[in-house]
Known about the structure:
- This protein is of the alpha/beta class.
- Helices cover 31% and strands 23% of the residues.
- The protein contains six helices and seven strands; from the N terminus they run H-E-H-E-H-E-E-H-H-E-H-E-E.
- Helix 1 packs parallel to helix 2 and helix 2 packs parallel to helix 3.
- The chain is globular and about 40 Å long.
Amino acid sequence: MSSINSFPTFNYSQPEEYRFSHDSVFLARRVFEYLEKNKLSPHAAIDICSGCGIIGLDLLFHVRTAGIVGPRIFDFLDVQLAYQNHFQENVSRLGPVPTSIRFVNGNYSDTTNSKLSTTYDLMVCNPPYFSQQQGKLPPNDLKLRSRFFVDSDLASLIEFVYRKLSADGSAFVLIRNQLEHNQDQLAEVIKLCREKLNVTQLEDIRGTHVVQLRSLLTR
């Protein structure tokens, strides 16, 4: 996939310390196309590791522009409260949508968070790509916790998806292998999902895998 975003939406508010890559906007577009093609209207959606909300808000922009029915509820979950002001600014820049939008400060390792919906029909996630053993850690805390698994781990992320995904829902997660560090993250995801979730590898985004996770009960 091209590194140039062919479907621009709006100018995001982002922290100077950490700027999101194009992977997030490409994932938003990919998920939108999936919803449109399959004529799906998820009731509840969540952007996990949402940061300032780029994936979910970008998705809502595309849905509104196309005139299709989007999620009624969209939660944005991030452990770093520092993103909240940027998120609220981005909600304002997005403009009116018929969706209840909430920023939830919390960790996906906590599947009992009372602020979250019981289940979600749609999940999107661009998680950290690195473990703390991989490379030099950034001195900035915001960048560190955005790029590296510090507050939790990949296993907890998969468990959260497993516990919170509705029977007919789909989760779309970006997975980047770190082969130079002897880490095959895709193989790890497949192993973690065994006997829990169906794993489908979709096309790559600039060398990053788009993985769709669905309930084993889904036909």
